[in-house]
Design brief:
Two copies of one chain form a homodimer.
Chain A: H1 14-32, E1 37-38, H2 40-47, H3 51-59, E2 71-72, H4 73-83, E3 90-95, H5 99-106, H6 108-112, E4 115-122, E5 131-132, E6 135-139, H7 143-149, E7 154-157, H8 161-173, E8 178-181, E9 194-197, H9 200-217
Parallel strand pairs in A: 3-4, 3-7, 4-6, 7-8, 8-9
Antiparallel strand pairs in A: 1-2, 5-6
Helix pairs in contact in A: 1-4, 2-3
Chain lengths: 218, 218
């Protein structure tokens, strides 16, 4: 395993962290299909990684595999779930009940993995008071008061860009330790607050870049 | 600049490609604010990269900056837009008109950048025939026929996971060169077809991993 990948603090490199959910997803598919064992070569082929990379990634979490025998799917899933923090539940609060916010609130996969949206807030008076996915949509002015009395793990921001920093500041001020940001803005947060961005346009631009690159080669 | 980052074929490393949309977004904000010049140090501070990394990234596209004088925001934006392929328009077709699909079809930012959803398909008879964001929702059985007579750059998959491979196969069969996938499935495509995934759950799992890691350190 290349030592340059190891972080100085003994933590797990971000590249490995990025791949763990991919392993989890594929192993869950295998488990659903009743597959009991899988080799690093099989995993590699299915996920377009090299077998060496898979062995290297999984070695960060102890020795799961046996030479020539592969990995036990159930055990590997259990270990990866534990490493990803899926042995507990997460309370989420969503701000922004537009189409995207509604899609997030309806997404069954999150709840199944232990991520539960407990409250939804919006600025739109026409939306406030409506039920969506088992939550009443509340006015955004009440967000701070709500967060003060309801400890929240993850604040979801699905608002237009021009208000997202303000919403983010409210989450941070009320002690929410992590932000899942869907707004097209680079949020400013203190070092200790974790942020995951889903920048849809960025993803689309990576696609147009590669389309363009391919066209120039052709 | 570290030579190991350079790809053998003279292409641009994926890490750099990933950061270009981030530069584009921030530089657009600066342009909107009327800022004319920006240094690599300023860019670095705003985006949490080192100035050296920014200089290295931008050097792939020629010499934009002048020592001690910084980058011309307009010129840098023009160059990055060109590199990202934004000097042309892209025709997109969306399959899946649930909340997520509707959110994508309504997203003004895409159209502004030249990405236009020209047709929407769904399997749900209750949705078919409805207008959404200027498109009539068409029955998914007509997807193949539509694609045969309407050249499409990007196929968007916002369906449940169990049908996404089939939709993907239809896109590929009809010569759509790239797929933007929102379904929680690792799609199998021929080498020449480009795929960008938005795996929402994966992003959430990276967050739970880091929350868990932080908690263990505390």
């Amino acid at each position: 395993m290349p030592s340059r990948e190891r972080k100085k603090d003994g933590g797990i490199p971000s590249g490995v962290v990025t791949r763990l959910p991919i392993y989890l997803r594929y192993l869950t598919e295998l488990q659903d299909q009743g597959v009991g064992r899988v080799s690093s070569a099989q995993l590699g082929e299915a996920l377009s990684f090299t077998a060496a990379q898979i062995r290297s990634d999984l070695s960060y979490f102890g020795s799961f595999g046996q030479q020539g025998y592969g990995y036990d799917v159930d055990e590997l899933l259990r270990q990866i779930s534990r490493i990803l923090g899926l042995n507990r539940n997460y309370v989420m609060v969503l701000v922004g009940a537009g189409n995207l916010g509604k899609a997030l609130a309806s997404y069954e996969n999150f709840r199944r993995r232990g991520f539960e949206i407990r409250a939804i807030f919006d600025v739109d008076e026409l939306l406030v008071g409506n039920y969506h996915a088992c939550c009443v949509i509340q006015p955004v002015e009440q967000l701070e008061e709500y967060l003060r009395s309801n400890p929240t793990d993850i604040g979801i921001i699905a608002t237009p860009g021009h208000v997202s920093q303000e919403i983010c500041d409210t989450f941070v001020k009320c002690g929410v330790p992590s932000i899942w940001n869907f707004s097209p803005v680079h949020l400013q947060v203190p070092d200790e607050v974790l942020v995951e961005h889903i920048h849809l346009t960025d993803s689309l631009l990576r696609l147009s870049f590669r389309l363009n690159e391919q066209r120039q080669k052709a």
